[in-house]
Design brief:
The complex is a heterodimer of chains A (238) and B (210). With 238 residues, chain A is an alpha+beta fold. Chain A contains 6 helices and 11 strands. In chain A, helix 2 crosses helix 4 and helix 3 packs across helix 4. The longest helix of chain A has 19 residues. The radius of gyration of chain B is 22 Å and the shape is elongated. In chain B, helix 2 packs across helix 3. Classes of the chains: A alpha+beta (238), B mainly alpha (210).
Chain lengths: 238, 210
């Protein structure tokens, strides 16, 4: 068999295989990490066979494996322009911790309650009033805000009751999976836990809360799902 | 401590991604997911060349023009995609089974590039279909019956044999590279390749030279 025959056969195979890959659907592609493990990690023989069976049927995944193999080999030098590098560095990762916190500051004023600021959405419950500070303001006796914390939709209602006390109601609705052991809502002041409820219906009410700084921790089986930082400012005009 | 580790990673430079450094990767990723700007900058510096190279290689494999504008665009899109939805993509990386962050990032980058090309291609096809009633078809490589026979013959090979054929003739990888991927020896790849070509030729009969 001549070298030319092999070359000819190779050319035909190349064209045929490239043509076969066109129009492939990305239906059952393997996840990226499985392909990356195939390139650089350790697999059991059976898992390796499974992936190889997929690769011969899916040119999309096969192309990705080949690209990953080539890219992780030493000796290849690629220069990235400074401007492009700076642009990517300018992207700021949003803090996951911050995104899982609902901030809420209210102030007691006579018989009403003012919303000073919040990182959530203000829900109009009564007569709207003037805006104060960063957030919208409510001059009714109740302030209600809502925010999505991870996979939870959280609504907090602060209501002025008698004297300088408030009642705080937290409603939590899961957007994804249900709670494993039930949602626990705990009210903390400083390092001390003031009250804690296993909120089977996703709701808990804390009564007779005086002005101060609080944290409402939302947990499921001991895992933190998010937190509400609540500040109630006292009415200094009384 | 974290800043010290990031500095170490930067000092390792472009070869850092070749090293097994799972612990360092974990620290770096955790920092990025936490929203630590220093960690993010280190991550970008460390993996930029890898991302750029993967985009270029994937474009070349798919016969796409490697325009600087497209390269830059895909490079930026990759980093944006890692940060979207509270770093959901970055958080997906587990590093199981000895998988390196570099190989995972290469696969993610390659997938992003391929999907962009597919999207652009389908848009082009949609436009051309509206402009032209008849599409020119590809020239046949060989006699249609022989082509059918060849496809059937390929389908009858074992998955590993077909994979070898794909890696060599579709991806253009050498025997030494295929040996690393298939976890076998270079000699075994050479032997298998000769045997497979002989087998295909036998099935196909004599192909007239072009």
């Amino acid at each position: 068999v001549s070298e030319r025959d092999d070359e000819h056969m190779g050319w035909i195979l190349n064209r045929l295989l490239l043509r076969q890959g066109e129009g492939s659907a990305r239906n059952e592609c393997l996840d990226e990490e499985s392909l990356a493990i195939y390139v650089s990690g350790d697999l059991t023989d059976s898992r390796r066979r499974e992936i190889e069976e997929h690769l011969v049927a899916c040119t999309l995944c096969l192309d990705e494996v080949a690209a990953a193999y080539r890219a992780t080999q030493p000796g290849e030098v690629e220069s990235v322009r400074e401007r492009v590098l700076q642009r990517a560095m300018a992207l700021v990762p949003r803090s996951r911790a911050e995104s899982n916190i609902l901030q809420l500051v209210v102030q007691l004023i006579k018989d009403s309650l003012d919303l000073i600021s919040t990182s959530g959405e203000f829900i109009m419950t009564a007569v709207p009033a003037a805006i104060r500070g960063k957030g919208k303001s409510s001059s009714s006796g109740t302030v209600q805000v809502a925010k999505q914390l991870g996979e939870l939709m959280v609504t907090v209602e602060v209501e002025k009751t008698e004297g300088q006390f408030c009642q705080v109601t937290v409603n939590v609705r899961p957007l994804g999976r249900a709670f494993a052991d039930g949602l626990r809502i705990s009210l903390l002041s400083g390092d001390r836990e003031q009250a804690s409820y296993l909120a089977r219906q996703g709701s808990a009410t804390f009564e007779r809360i005086p002005p101060g700084e609080y944290q409402l921790a939302l947990t499921d089986s001991g895992n933190s799902l998010g937190a509400i930082c609540l500040t109630i400012k006292e009415d200094r005009r009384e | 401590l974290c800043n010290y580790r990031y500095s170490q990673l930067i000092l390792l430079g472009q070869r850092a991604h070749d090293l097994p450094m799972t612990e360092a990767e974990q620290i770096l990723l955790a920092g990025c997911i936490r929203g630590d700007k220093t960690a993010w900058n280190s991550f970008v510096i460390q993996y930029s060349k890898l991302v750029y190279y993967t985009v270029r290689k994937t474009l070349t494999l798919h016969n796409a023009e490697c325009r600087d504008e497209l390269l830059d665009d895909l490079y930026q899109e990759l980093f944006v995609s890692l940060l979207q939805n509270d770093c959901r993509k970055l958080a997906q990386f587990r590093g199981d089974g000895g998988c390196t962050l570099a190989s995972w990032l290469s696969v993610v980058t390659s997938r992003l590039t391929i999907d962009r090309l597919r999207k652009e291609k389908s848009a082009r096809v949609a436009i051309s279909e509206t402009l032209f009633s008849a599409q020119p078809t590809d020239e046949p490589l060989i006699d249609p019956d022989q082509e059918k026979t060849l496809i059937t013959a390929l389908e009858k090979l074992t998955p590993r044999e077909r994979l070898m054929i794909h890696l060599h003739f579709r991806q253009g990888l050498g025997a030494d590279e295929i040996a690393v991927i298939l976890k076998t020896s270079v000699a075994a790849v050479h032997t298998q390749k000769s045997r497979l070509l002989a087998k295909l030729r036998e099935i196909l009969g004599q192909i007239p030279s072009l």
